[in-house]
Amino acid sequence: MPLYELGDVEDVGRRAGMVMTFAALGAIAGPPISGIINKATGGFGAVGYYA
């Protein structure tokens, strides 16, 4: 669903910023968690399940 269909035009920037914030949190947290899983299991197979 496009952001402009969710409400007033004045709120589009706020909603886009919130979406980008949550995407950035995932991008920041993902690699360290993948590294921990890789070290714990000794391979990248389990990392694929996490991704």
From TrEMBL:
Q: What domain of life does the native source organism fall in?
A: Eukaryota
- Enumerate the InterPro entries for this protein: MFS_trans_sf
Output this protein's name.
Answer: Major facilitator superfamily (MFS) profile domain-containing protein
What organism, scientifically named, is this protein from? Asterophora parasitica
